[in-house]
Protein: ATP-binding cassette domain-containing protein
Organism: Chelativorans petroleitrophicus
Amino acid sequence: MSENPPLLKLEAISKNFGAIEALKGVDMEIRAGEVVALLGDNGAGKSTLVKIISGGLRPSSGRIIMEGTPRDFASPAEAKAAGIETVYQDLSLCINADVVANFFMGREITKRFFGIPILQERAMEAVVAKALADAGTRIPSLRTNVEHLSGGQRQAIELNRFVHWGGKLVLLDEPFAALGVEQTRRGLDMIRQVVARGIGVVIITHIMAQAFQVADRIIVIRHGRVAGDVRTDETTPEQVIDMITGGTLSGAGKGRDQGNSSPATGERESSQ
Ligand SMILES: Nc1ncnc2c1ncn2[C@@H]1O[C@H](COP(=O)(O)OP(=O)(O)OP(=O)(O)O)[C@@H](O)[C@H]1O
């Protein structure tokens, strides 16, 4: 296999808010074609980390290295220009515009007639139809206003748009919080489809089952540090719960091999 540098590498990232040390020396890597689930208790530092990656916050210290090059994003717009974006459900779509308009948003195809730019609706429609078809996403009509689409369909549009315009790393913060069971399942499938196209995905979720279903790797943040960085096929929900809680829920934190009667497994996290 090639020795490409990771899509994103964080080195000793720390973040202080006054006296609060939200992150304390976080190291991690995310590779293209990989889904990483970020888990951790409330206040562990997940959102702070995601904001640092996506340019919403600057670290107090540490380095962000993207594809081998150190980066210092001063704003979400700068991170976005580099191909890193947080997709917040619904927030980035214009509800009273149709699918095609949302897909292009600021990148419309126009032709000039006597100096006046004219939208090339047919050409734009064809681009969107192909992008969605390639991703296996079905939307009844591309001319439907987004307000009439389901939460899952909206997510599909956002993710496909991200990939289509050259996005490299997408950050999803609790992307299925408002979705039902079936839509969530489709959303998880869709994440696997977009990641197969060579992007990286970081998903924050409180639902353990989702992490195991969609992620290649789970990174646990606890009290601002990386408490675990494991492949999902080499760990168990019990072990991950131990990492999240510091081993306080399943005994002394030593008996991870047994996975016997960990009380928390799946309960707190069980999907709807
Ligand atoms: N803007 C801020 N000013 C001061 N403290 C902050 C700020 N943002 C986060 N913190 C603190 O930093 C710590 C980490 O918070 P963060 O929101 O990153 O955790 P989280 O893991 O995302 O939690 P949750 O799952 O509850 O969203 C917390 O102690 C929080 O109170």
Q: What stands out?
A: The radius of gyration is 20 Å. The longest helix spans residues 181-195. Residues 251-272 have pLDDT under 50 and may be disordered.
